[in-house]
Design goal:
By secondary structure, the chain is of the alpha/beta class. It has a single domain, classed as Ribonuclease Inhibitor (Leucine-rich repeat, LRR (right-handed beta-alpha superhelix), Alpha-Beta Horseshoe), CATH 3.80.10.10. It contains 4 helices and 4 strands, in the order αβαβαβαβ. It has a 4-stranded parallel sheet with strand order 1-2-3-4, with no helix packed on it. The longest helix has 11 residues. The model has no long low-confidence stretch (mean pLDDT 89).
């Protein structure tokens, strides 16, 4: 996944992104950093659904990288994130995510699962 952010480069007109990485033990904060960089290039994205359930190497740092990528997606209407059992994500990471989403005026639906 470390090069995945680069792969998003040519998909700038994509409107919907749904990815399931549940139980992928190799997903790390570095992976999410690259993914967050790639998100910035998806100017027309309206819907995003990401499942990182049981990806235990993910922390607030990785969540912050995704938050930074989301900030620029001004057409985003719906977000669904699953970070269940990602025990390294705390209230601080969730607060940063919330701050990023405040800037998205077109956002209509948010669904988060951070089950511990």
């Amino acid at each position: 996944m470390d090069s995945f952010g680069e792969g998003l480069k040519g998909l700038g007109s994509m409107k919907s992104l749904r990815m399931n990485f549940a139980e992928c033990v190799k997903i790390t904060d570095k992976s999410l950093s690259n993914f967050g960089e790639g998100l910035r290039r998806l100017d027309f994205l309206e819907y995003i659904d990401l499942d990182f359930t049981h990806c235990r190497k993910i922390s607030n740092e990785g969540l912050n990288s995704i938050s930074e990528g989301l900030k620029l997606l001004l057409l985003l209407r719906s977000i669904e994130f699953k970070f269940g059992y990602c025990r390294k994500i705390s209230n601080e990471g969730l607060a940063n995510l919330g701050q990023s989403l405040k800037m998205l005026s077109s956002l209509q639906s948010i669904n988060f699962n951070f089950r511990k």
